[in-house]
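Can anyone check this?
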Amino acid sequence: MKKVILAVMILTILSPLGAAGSRETVAQTPVEIYTFGGSSTVAPIVNGALTSFLADHKDVKITYETLGSSTGIKQLQEGTLSLAGSSRELKSSELQAGLKPIVIALDGLSVAVNRNVPIANLSMAELAGIFSGEIVNWKSVGGPDAKIEVIVRDETSGTYASFKEIVLDPTKKQYKKDAIVARENGELATKIAATPNAIGYIGMAFNHIVEEAGGHILTIDQVVPTSDNVVNKSYPISRSLYMVSIGDLQPSIELDFINYLLSSRGQAIVAENDFIPLP
């Protein structure tokens, strides 16, 4: 069940009434209010698209709440949201409950290190060792004799889940328990740049935050994290970004918005926000 609030916009029009004054004519225009929410990674795409989408839908107001993928999906199921953004794959239980993921863009997760870490490449096996806490010193992977400071996203994040699914799950490892936690990609990128000996992962769209602060992006298994390498599937830490609905969407404002995201204009907005349009 979607949550739609019907509001009323009051329009006051003043018209002349001779020399005595003016007449007020009041017209009521219904405005439907919708709430979407979820992944912070998906947020720039949705908010960018809403600006132009709502320009053609004057009788609609839509907001997107940045909650994290898992919280957004939970609130979608509870009926608080009518669409959820997700940067992780849906769980089998969520699919069995009738949720439908719709791919709106592609993305890669970059691995970044602080400026004082003089390495350029890590293997997937080394990443799994570092983020699980089995590798704790940079000298073990060709770096200096220094403790590795691991920075991760919080557990509600789709980026947290995606990195775990791609890097840790194949080796049956879990995240180390004493990692530094950041709530958003931007916060994580800033912490990598500010924390000596740090390593973390971010959506590729946020690479510039690390680089502008002097940190650098690693190649993984000698593959550079680029859009082309995500599309051709040579970069190993790649993912899809989703909007999630409850079942197949029927004609509705939600369906109109999804179709807009998948249109040429919507995919141009994906690219403008440094994500990867669908091939």
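Reply from J.R.: I decoded it. The chain has ten helices and twelve strands.
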